[in-house]
Design a protein that fits this description.
The complex is a heterodimer. Chain A is an alpha/beta fold. Chain A contains 15 helices and ten strands. Chain B is globular. The model of chain B has no long low-confidence stretch (mean pLDDT 90). The chains are: A alpha/beta, B mainly alpha.
């Protein structure tokens, strides 16, 4: 055998061994695998990474996180490409349960969206209520004094934005065509904030992403409206329905959801970000809903409950213990 | 953080390196065959490979995603969001580069080499290998350019790899993620590593090209 032939044989061997090694690595890792597709705000703030390392440290499990926004998270789960989802769009979640794709929904956390904008506040929305502010921004936009940047990507934040326009009495489809002041970013939250900052525009954001980008000096925007009931942001966990997708890791998903709503998991959520930003990024939702003393519990019920419950009985799939 | 950077870098090199080798197992024979033979439609075939040189990576990523997702025709392979999916995707992505480079390398070799080998009693395969040996410089170029394209691409890695931390996150997708997480320093560190790899490869490429007659 000549030198060239030997080289070619060696090349083929190396290629085969590398690919085989990878197949063996992927197929035979003894660890259980749990694939979570999630809204970006939970991952990009670092919360989910913190929960993952905490959870994996004590268990033999590989948590795989795909962070792509609520719209795609729902789609992946619907097609059976994920075991569970973490999302923040109650209206879409109800549909997801109804269509039989998801079961065992649990509300895990909440916080508030914020309307942010340039320091100069050309639409003069400081101190207004959310819906007044939305109206003001439209007026200022039409007069050429303000710009609004929308996520435009069917994410949870984008869905919230559409609901707010509707509540303020505007048809989102109409605003969308007013391209002189209504700009669609088609980006994640970080990219949208940067675009809004570059153009001195207003936008709707989750607090976590806003704080991390502000701290890094990437944006120059101020929080103008926050902590309003209309801006409530509720995060839920939903397991993929195993009857629909038998190959998914249902028990793994249930265990992880149980962890998220346990005292330990809720503590992790409430502590996260305190050191770095001087305020928590997410508030635990389980206790307020049980104790009913905090008025936010009623807001959560009104915004994110279906027929008076976080998960109607028919979608609890043999796990009544999740619902106390 | 440091161990994370190293892990992502090694994964990138491993994934794109394996993709290059895998692609070579079909691209080299293909390039050799096209370069050595005269057949009807040869110009057309070469034109097709040349056209796919500029294949947008996210288009290929999207097509592969649709094919290997659970509901897709190859869903049963459970490939989606695994390193293997990126390897296969990148191997397909760089096939046109490797085929085109090999074809031109082989065509630049004097046809007498093959004829001479045959006169000396070599079989068809042995004669082809003799040509490939003469075209070694050009073939190496094919490997380097292919690896370069694979490690620098993001569309396939993002679409079918999913950029799962600790599993399928590679340099390109990690850089994009760090921007989204507002970790500019870490993003810059990863970008510097990727740039160094690509520069080092291009430098080698230039040196090889200079040495070629």
């Amino acid at each position: 055998m000549g030198k060239t032939e030997a080289l070619i044989v060696a090349l083929i061997l190396v290629a085969v061994v590398s690919v085989a090694g990878m197949i063996i690595y992927v197929k035979t890792t003894a660890k259980e695998r749990l694939r979570i597709s999630t809204t970006t705000s939970l991952y990009d703030t670092g919360l989910l990474e913190a929960i993952r390392s905490h959870y994996e440290a004590k268990r033999s499990i590989d948590i795989q996180i795909i962070s792509r926004g609520t719209g795609l998270a729902l789609k992946l789960a619907q097609d059976g490409d994920a075991d569970m989802i973490l999302v923040h769009a109650p209206s879409k979640e109800m549909l997801f349960l109804k269509q039989g794709y998801g079961v065992c929904r649990k509300i895990i956390a909440y916080n508030f969206f914020a309307i942010v904008g340039p320091e100069a506040d050309p639409a003069e929305i400081r101190g207004l209520t959310t819906l007044e502010a939305m109206t003001k921004i439209v007026e200022a936009g039409r007069n050429g004094q303000a710009i609004w940047v929308s996520r435009g990507d069917d994410s949870g934040t984008h869905i919230k934005e559409k609901e707010l326009w509707e509540a303020a009495g505007f048809a989102w489809e109409d605003l969308r065509s007013e391209t002189s002041w209504y700009v669609e970013a088609s980006k994640g939250m970080g990219g949208t904030l940067i675009l809004a900052s570059e153009r001195s525009a207003y936008t709707l954001t989750d607090m976590g992403t806003y704080l991390s980008h502000s701290a890094a000096g990437l944006i120059d925007l101020k929080v103008l409206i926050s902590q309003e009931e209309e801006l409530l942001n509720v995060y839920s966990a939903i397991a993929v329905n195993q009857t629909r997708h038998p190959h998914t890791n249902f028990s793994g998903a249930i265990n992880f959801i149980k962890f998220l709503v346990s005292d330990e998991g809720q503590q992790l959520i409430s502590d996260y970000g305190k050191d770095e930003y001087g305020q928590p990024l997410f508030y635990p939702a389980v206790k307020p809903l049980q104790e009913n003393t905090d008025p936010v519990a009623d807001s959560i019920r009104e915004y994110a409950f279906f027929n008076g419950t976080e998960c109607p009985v028919e979608y609890r799939n043999g796990h009544p213990e999740l619902y106390g | 953080m440091n161990s994370e950077i190293i892990e992502i870098t090694l994964r990138s090199i491993y994934v794109s390196g394996t993709a290059t080798l895998l692609s070579a197992t079909w691209s080299l024979p293909l390039g050799l065959a096209i370069g050595l033979r005269d057949f009807y439609g040869k110009r057309f075939v070469k034109g097709v490979f040349n056209a796919f040189l500029g294949m947008p990576t996210v288009v290929l990523g999207l097509i592969l995603f649709l094919l290997i997702r659970h509901a897709g025709p190859f869903g049963f392979l459970n490939l989606l969001f695994t390193p293997l999916a990126i390897i296969v995707g990148q191997a397909i992505l760089i096939t046109p580069i490797m085929v085109s480079f090999t074809t031109s390398a082989v065509e630049s070799i004097d046809p007498e080499v093959r004829d001479l080998a045959k006169t000396l009693g070599a079989t068809e395969i042995q004669a082809s290998l003799a040509v490939l040996k003469e075209a070694a410089g050009g073939t190496l170029l094919a490997f380097i350019a292919s690896f370069n394209r694979a490690i620098a691409e993001m569309g396939v890695a993002y679409m079918v790899g999913g950029s799962i931390p600790g599993f399928t996150m590679v340099l390109t997708t990690a850089i994009a993620l760090q921007r989204d997480m507002a970790n500019i320093e870490l993003g810059l560190a990863l970008a510097t590593i990727l740039l160094s790899i690509v520069f080092a490869i291009n430098l080698t490429l230039n040196l090889i090209q200079k040495r070629r007659p």
